[in-house]
Write a structure and sequence with these properties.
Structural class: mainly alpha
Number of strands: 0
Distance between the termini: 44 Å
Order of helices and strands: HH
């Protein structure tokens, strides 16, 4: 260890990568498992005639996130 108790930069990079990658991988797995049955259930729902088309949602959410 270096003076002051800090770890060398090389070790910090691996810890940073792991602390970012672990939640992303875990979230991806959990999301995949959770949405399997939801997709088929959602397709069977009867929506009103005034409901927007499905393709509009990613466009709107992306524009909201960017702004």
């Amino acid at each position: 260890m270096e003076e002051g108790g800090s770890l060398p930069i090389k070790n910090n990079k691996w810890k940073l990568a792991a602390s970012v990658a672990l939640p992303v991988v875990a979230g991806t797995i959990a999301g995949t498992i959770a949405t399997r049955s939801v997709k088929t259930t959602f397709r069977r729902l009867k929506t009103p005639k005034c409901a927007p088309p499905n393709w509009i949602f990613p466009v709107v959410w992306t524009s909201l996130d960017v702004t």
